[in-house]
Every structure is written in structure tokens, then in C-alpha cells.
Design goal:
Largest sheet: 7 strands, parallel
CATH topology: Rossmann fold
Number of helices: 8
Order of helices and strands: EHEHEHEHEHEHHHE
Number of domains: 1
Radius of gyration: 17 Å
Helix content: 40-55%
CATH class: Alpha Beta
Shape: globular
Number of strands: 7
CATH superfamily: NAD(P)-binding Rossmann-like Domain
């Protein structure tokens, strides 16, 4: 069975790879055998994720790209398409917190650009070689807020709901051409994006009280799901959004 999850000889692009969930995904794919192209706004060749991937015996290339910059994302898409990667993990994202009635429109615009529009803008060119050869794996990072409304994050919720729909739309078109498109919906994971929640004793306690697993998630909790969705083990899985949430949505 282990050969189903073997990624040796595969080239994987992971966006938002510098830290948190993206770093954990990049390291998990490298551990399964994939070489990694990492992309983040401030990623460097000597960042910790690069060192970790290379320590696993895999290659790592770093691209520093701001996903709020449409032209930069399109340029990246052209470069990556020329490399014809086997795997694309669309994980780059950002979040802004403010009540909806006071949520600045510039925050809304930036969050939608980074979390949704840029994902499509990058996926289009990278998917081209996959469709031509008839094989490829594309994974989006969705969210619990692909299913729920959240509090004080209207832009983030709208974007992640859009990611769920985009996952299904692309899967409908591309599954028959050998390209699997799926998403992972992380629960409450201890990353920079959730630092404000973890620092608020009342919110943190309310969140933990609802998670059947009784703890915040860790980046490594996403490892199995991303390797599964990027490997031959998921060849008949398409348009799925897999929660990795300690049981939150089942509560």
C-alpha cells in the first residue's frame, strides 16, 4: 500500500510555504518524496522550510511573490507552467479581522485578491501542462469558514466559501482529463492567523470547548491529508473538501 502514497519523482508547488500550514504541507510532501517549489511573499532560499526540505533529501526552490500583486502572480504562473509541476497546493492566504459594519473595503479587496482571485489566476496556467499530459493534482486550502460564517472576518469567509465553489467547479471540468482538484479545510490550527484568538481567553476557551479532540490543531495534522490528495491514493477523489478539524464540524 505504501506505493500509493509515494511521491518520488514528483515536483510540487506549495504557496504560502514559509510558515504554518504551508510549511507543514511542504515538509510532508518532501517526506513522501516530492521535490518542492515554495512560494511566499518573503520566502528566501535559506528559510527554515528550505532547510527542512533539503534535510529530507529533496530539492527546494524559493519564489518570493506577493499574492496581492496580480501581475506578479501571473508572471509566476508563466514560470511555473514552463516547469510543468505534478502538484499544485494553493495555500497562500491572509486574514483581516473587524466587525462587518466597520470592515474597510480595502481589507475586503486585499483578502479576496490573495485568498481567491490569485488562486484562480495561478491555477489556470499551472493546470495547462497537467491537462495536456492527462495527470496532475491540485489542492486548495479551504477553511471551516467554507461551511460557516465566522465572526468579524467577512472577507475571509467570502473568499474561503469561494474556494469551496472553485474546487468543485474545476473538479467538474478537469476530473475527466486526469487532473484531480480537491481541498483541505483546516480547523482551528495554532498559526499566526489564529494568534489573536488564542490570546483572547474567552474566545480560546469557547473554541476549545467545541473541538471534540480538545486541542488546537498543529501544522503536522494536515500532513496525511495533503499527501493523500497529492498521491495516487486519491486518483478517484475529485471535488472533495476534507475537514481536518478535530471534529469541529461534526459537533
Amino acid at each position: 500500500m505504501t506505493e500509493l502514497f509515494d511521491l518520488h519523482g514528483r515536483l510540487a508547488v506549495v504557496t504560502g510555504a514559509r510558515r504554518g500550514i504551508g510549511r507543514a504541507m511542504a515538509e510532508a510532501l518532501a517526506r513522501a518524496g516530492a521535490d518542492i517549489i515554495g512560494v511566499s511573499a518573503q520566502l528566501r532560499e535559506d528559510d527554515e522550510v528550505a532547510t527542512a526540505v533539503r534535510a529530507l533529501g529533496r530539492s527546494f526552490e524559493a519564489y518570493a511573490v506577493d499574492f496581492a500583486d496580480r501581475d506578479a502572480v501571473l508572471a509566476l504562473g508563466g514560470e511555473l507552467a514552463a516547469r510543468a509541476p505534478d502538484i499544485l497546493v494553493n495555500n497562500a492566504g491572509t486574514i483581516e479581522r473587524a466587525p462587518a459594519a466597520q470592515h474597510p473595503l480595502e481589507w475586503w479587496d486585499r483578502v479576496l485578491e490573495v485568498n481567491l482571485s490569485s488562486q484562480f489566476a495561478l491555477t489556470q496556467p499551472v493546470a495547462g501542462p497537467m491537462l495536456e499530459r492527462g495527470s496532475g493534482k491540485i489542492v486548495f486550502t479551504a477553511s471551516l469558514l467554507s461551511f460557516q460564517g465566522g465572526i468579524n472576518v467577512p472577507g475571509y469567509t467570502a473568499a474561503k466559501s469561494g474556494i469551496a465553489g472553485l474546487t468543485r467547479a474545476l473538479a467538474n471540468e478537469w476530473a475527466g482529463q486526469g487532473v484531480n482538484v480537491n481541498a483541505i479545510a483546516p480547523g482551528y490550527v495554532a498559526t499566526d492567523n489564529t494568534a489573536a484568538l488564542r490570546a483572547d481567553p474567552q474566545r480560546s476557551r469557547a473554541i476549545l470547548d467545541r473541538i471534540p479532540a480538545g486541542r488546537w490543531g498543529r501544522g503536522d495534522d494536515l500532513a496525511g491529508a495533503v499527501v493523500f490528495l497529492c498521491s495516487a491514493a486519491s486518483d478517484y477523489v475529485s471535488g472533495a473538501i476534507i475537514p481536518v478539524d478535530g471534529g469541529w464540524l461534526g459537533r
